[in-house]
UniProtKB/TrEMBL annotation:
GO biological process: endosome organization; exocytosis; extracellular matrix disassembly; Golgi to plasma membrane transport; protein transport
Protein name: Exocyst complex component 8
Function: Component of the exocyst complex involved in the docking of exocytic vesicles with fusion sites on the plasma membrane.
Biased composition (Acidic residues): 312-328
Organism: Catagonus wagneri
Record keywords: Cell projection, Cytoplasm, Exocytosis, Protein transport, Transport
GO cellular component: exocyst; growth cone; late endosome; perinuclear region of cytoplasm
Skewed-composition ranges (Low complexity): 138-153
Annotated SMART domains: PH
InterPro entries: Cullin_repeat-like_dom_sf, Exo84, Exo84_C, Exo84_C_1, Exo84_C_2, PH-like_dom_sf, PH_domain
C-alpha cells in the first residue's frame, strides 16, 4: 500500500511539473510553506531527483529507439534507391528495344499476310497461311546484327544481368556504353598483399566477356561497391598459387607492371574462377581472330536498286525528294541522354556539382552543331530548369550566411562550377561579397588589446593576410576570364581597405594616442600594405587617401600641444643658465641633443655641470626635433604643406619670444645670454631642422630657408614693450 501511495505521489508530481502553467519559483515557495522542516525538503528533493533520473533514462531509451529506426530507414532508402535505379534502367532498355523494331517489318508483314490469305483460299485452309508467314519471318534481318547471331538468344538476358549488377558499383557507368558486353561470372574475393601476404580488403570481381572489373566493398551500404580497377583480358595473365596453409585457395593476376593476389571462398570457387577466366580469354581471342579474318576478306560489289524495279509505278506518283537538311534528325535515344535530367537531380541532391557540370558540358558538346527540332527544345527546357536549380545551390554555397571558415579556398569549388556554367560575373560578385563578409567578421572578432600598437599589429596581420590570400585565390579562379573581373577586385579591395581604415582610425586616432604611437602604427600599416606588391597590387595610395584627414588632425593637435607648452615656458623664462647638478645628467643631455642632430652641443657646455643655454631653448629644441622625427614617419606628399606650416608655426613661437626678450631686456649680461640663445636657434637648430626635413621629404623647403636667413622674423615697434606672440 505504501508503494502504491509512492507511485501515485510520483505520478502526481510528474503531472504537476509537466503542466504548462508550472512556475518553479511559486512551486518552491508553496513547498517551503507546507513543509515541516528540513527533512521534508530533503525527501521532496530526492523524489524530484529520482524523477529526473527516470526521465533521463526514458529520454535515452527513446533516442536509441529513434536512432535505430533512423538507421533502418536509411538502409531501406538505400535499397529502394538501388531498386529504382534498376527499374529505371530496365524501363529505358525496354523502351529502346521497342523503338529499335524496324519500320520495314510493317509493310513486309502486311505483304506476308496478303500472301497467306491468298494461299489459304487456294489451299483451302488457314493453317497453311500461318505456317507460311512463320517461315517468311525468319528471312527478315534481326535488329542485333551479327553480334546477336554470335551471342545467341540469351544476350539480352546477359546484358540485363550485367546492367543490374553494375548499377550497384559506383563509378563504372562508362562500362555500360560498350556494345556487345555481357557478364560471364562474378563473386566475392579477398585481396592479399603480394609481398607480405597480409590481408588488404574485401573485393567483388565482375568478369565480362572482354575485361575483369574489381570493385571494393562499401561497409556502410550493404550490397553496394565502389569501382577499383578494370583490366582487359587480352593483357591479363592468371597464375594458380600453390596452397600453403593457412594461405590457400588463392590465385594471382598478372598485369604488367603490377600483380594482385586474391583468395576465393573455397577450392571449388577458386577452380571455377581459374576455368572461367581461361575459357573467357580463349573465347575472346577466337572472336578477335574471326573479326580480323572477316575484315581481311574481299567484299562483293554493292547492290544497286534500280528505279525501274516496279514497271507498274507511275512516274507522276513519285514523291518529291526531301532535302537532306529536313531529313536530318537528332538521336536522343541514347541512355545517358534519356537519364540526363534525373542524373542532374541526383548530382544536385548529392552536392556533386562537378559531375552535374560535366553532364551539361557533355550534352552541349553533343548538341553543338545539331539542329533544334521540338524534341531537342523540350530536352533543353528540362535541362535549363536543372541548371537554374544548380545555380541557386551554388549561389547559396557562396552566400555570407554559410560558414566563413576555411579561407578563400573553401569557395573555389562553387566559383569554378559557376564559371563553367557561364556565370562568371555572378561568381565574381558572390566570391568578393563572401570575402568581404569574412574580412568584416575577422576584424570584428579581433580582441582589442590594452596596448594600441599590439592591436594594430594583429589587425594588420589579419587584414592584409586575408587580402593577400583572397587576391591569390581570385587570380587562380578567374585566370581565364576577361579583365572586367580584375577591375571588380580592385574596387572590392578599395572597399575592404575602407573597413580596415575605419577600425584603424578608431583605435589610433579617436583614442588620442601620442604622435609617436600613431607614427609607429601607420608605419606598420604601410609595411603590410607593401607586401601586396608581391602579387602586383599597390594599394599604398589608397591607405594614404583614407588616413590623410586623421593624420592631419593628429599633426595639428600635437602642434598645438607644443605651442602651448612653449608659451607656458616662455611666460616663466628667467634667462638663466642650466645647472644639471650631476655629470650623468649632463651626459644624458648631450646624448639627447646628439640624437636630435645637434652635433656641436659641446661648445655650449661650461664648467662642471653648467650649460650656457636657457632651459626653455633646450626644451624647445628637443620637443621640435621629436615632432619632426615622428611627423616624417607619417609623411606622404599630401601632407607636405601641413607638416611645413606646422613647423613654421612652432619655430615662430620661439623666435618671436627671443626677439621680444632682446628688445625688452635692459641688463647687459642677460642680453648677452639671450643673444647666445638666439645664435643657437638661428645657427644650429634651424639648419638641423632644415636638413632633416630635406632628408625625410626629398626636397628643400623654401619657407624654412627664409626663416633661417631672416635676422628678425617679425618686426616690432622698437618703442613697444608688449609681446606680439
Amino acid at each position: 500500500m505504501a508503494m502504491a501511495m509512492s507511485d501515485s505521489g510520483a505520478s502526481r508530481l510528474r503531472r504537476q511539473l509537466e503542466s504548462g502553467s508550472f512556475e518553479a519559483r511559486l512551486y518552491v515557495k508553496q513547498l517551503s510553506q507546507q513543509s515541516d522542516g528540513d527533512r521534508d525538503l530533503q525527501e521532496h528533493r530526492q523524489r524530484i531527483q529520482a524523477l529526473a533520473e527516470e526521465t533521463a533514462q526514458n529520454l535515452k531509451r527513446n533516442v536509441y529507439q529513434n536512432y535505430r529506426q533512423f538507421i533502418e530507414t536509411a538502409r531501406e532508402i538505400s535499397y529502394l534507391e538501388s531498386e529504382m535505379y534498376q527499374l529505371s534502367h530496365l524501363l529505358t532498355e525496354q523502351k529502346s528495344n521497342l523503338e529499335s523494331i524496324p519500320l520495314t517489318l510493317l509493310p513486309a508483314a502486311a505483304a506476308a499476310g496478303a500472301a497467306a490469305a491468298s494461299g489459304g483460299e487456294e489451299g483451302g485452309g488457314g493453317a497453311g497461311g500461318r505456317d507460311h508467314l512463320r517461315g517468311q519471318a525468319g528471312f527478315f534481318p534481326s535488329p542485333g546484327g551479327s553480334s546477336r547471331d554470335s551471342s545467341g538468344p540469351g544476350e539480352e538476358g546477359k546484358q540485363r544481368t550485367l546492367t543490374t549488377l553494375l548499377e550497384k558499383v559506383e563509378g563504372c557507368r562508362h562500362l555500360l556504353e560498350t556494345p556487345g558486353q555481357y557478364l560471364v561470372y562474378n563473386g566475392d574475393l579477398v585481396e592479399y598483399e603480394a609481398d607480405h601476404m597480409a590481408q588488404l580488403q574485401r573485393v567483388h570481381g565482375f568478369l565480362m566477356n572482354d575485361c575483369l572489373l574489381v570493385a571494393t566493398w562499401l561497409p556502410q551500404r550493404r550490397g553496394m561497391y565502389r569501382y577499383n580497377a578494370l583490366y582487359p583480358l587480352d593483357g591479363l595473365a592468371v597464375v594458380n598459387v600453390k596452397d600453403n596453409p593457412p594461405m590457400k585457395d588463392m590465385f594471382k593476376l598478372l598485369m604488367f607492371p603490377e600483380s594482385r593476389i586474391f583468395q576465393a571462398e573455397n577450392a571449388k570457387i577458386k577452380r571455377e574462377w581459374l576455368e572461367v577466366l581461361e575459357e573467357t580469354k580463349r573465347a575472346l581471342s577466337e572472336k578477335r581472330r574471326r573479326e580480323q579474318e572477316e575484315a581481311a576478306a574481299p567484299r562483293g560489289p554493292p547492290q544497286v536498286t534500280s528505279k525501274a524495279s516496279n514497271p507498274f509505278e507511275d512516274e507522276d506518283d513519285e514523291e518529291p525528294a526531301v532535302p537532306e537538311a529536313e531529313e536530318e534528325k537528332v538521336d536522343l535515344s541514347m541512355e545517358w541522354i534519356q537519364e540526363l535530367p534525373e542524373d542532374l537531380d541526383v548530382c544536385i541532391a548529392q552536392r556533386d556539382f562537378e559531375g552535374a557540370v560535366d553532364l551539361l558540358d557533355k550534352l552541349n558538346q553533343y548538341l553543338e552543331d545539331k539542329p533544334s527540332p521540338p524534341a531537342v527544345k523540350e530536352l533543353r527546357a528540362r535541362v535549363d530548369e536543372r541548371v537554374r536549380q544548380l545555380t541557386e545551390v551554388l549561389v547559396f554555397e557562396l552566400s555570407p550566411d554559410r560558414s566563413l571558415r576555411g579561407g578563400p579556398k573553401a569557395t573555389r569549388r562553387a566559383v569554378s562550377q559557376l564559371i563553367r556554367l557561364g556565370q562568371c560575373t555572378k561568381a565574381c560578385e558572390l566570391f568578393l561579397r563572401n570575402r568581404a563578409a569574412a574580412v568584416h567578421t575577422a576584424i570584428r572578432q579581433l580582441r582589442i588589446e590594452g596596448a594600441t600598437l599590439l592591436y594594430i599589429h594583429k589587425l594588420c596581420h589579419v587584414f592584409f593576410t586575408s587580402l593577400l590570400e583572397t587576391a591569390r585565390e581570385f587570380e587562380a579562379d578567374f585566370a581565364g576570364t576577361d579583365g572586367g573581373c580584375y577591375s571588380a577586385f580592385v574596387v572590392w579591395a578599395r572597399s575592404a581597405l575602407g573597413t580596415f581604415a575605419a577600425a584603424f582610425s578608431k583605435q589610433v586616432f579617436d583614442s588620442k594616442e601620442s604622435l609617436s604611437t600613431a607614427a609607429e602604427c601607420v608605419k606598420v600599416a604601410k609595411e603590410h600594405c607593401q607586401q601586396l606588391g608581391d602579387i602586383g597590387l599597390d594599394l599604398t595610395f589608397i591607405i594614404h587617401t583614407l588616413l590623410v584627414k586623421d593624420i592631419q588632425g593628429a599633426l595639428h593637435s600635437y602642434k598645438e600641444i607644443i605651442i602651448e607648452a612653449t608659451k607656458h615656458r616662455n611666460s616663466e623664462e628667467m634667462w638663466r643658465r642650466m645647472n644639471l647638478m650631476t655629470p650623468e645628467a649632463l651626459g644624458k643631455l648631450k646624448e639627447e641633443m646628439k640624437s636630435c642632430g645637434v652635433r656641436n652641443f659641446e661648445q655650449y657646455t661650461g664648467d662642471d655641470c653648467w650649460v650656457n643655454l636657457s632651459y626653455t631653448v633646450v626644451a624647445f629644441t628637443k620637443q621640435t626635433m621629436g615632432f619632426l622625427e615622428e611627423a616624417l614617419k607619417l609623411y606622404f606628399p599630401e601632407l607636405h604643406m601641413v607638416l611645413l606650416e606646422s613647423l613654421v608655426e612652432i619655430i615662430l613661437v620661439a623666435v618671436q619670444h627671443v626677439d621680444y626678450s632682446l628688445r625688452c631686456e635692459q641688463d647687459p649680461e642677460k642680453k648677452a645670454f639671450i643673444r647666445q640663445n638666439a645664435s643657437f636657434l638661428y645657427e644650429t637648430v634651424l639648419p638641423v631642422v632644415e636638413k632633416r626635413f630635406e632628408e625625410g621629404v626629398g626636397k628643400p623647403a623654401k619657407q624654412l630657408q627664409d626663416l633661417r636667413n631672416a635676422s628678425r622674423l617679425i618686426r616690432v615697434n622698437p618703442e613697444s614693450t608688449t609681446s606680439v606672440v
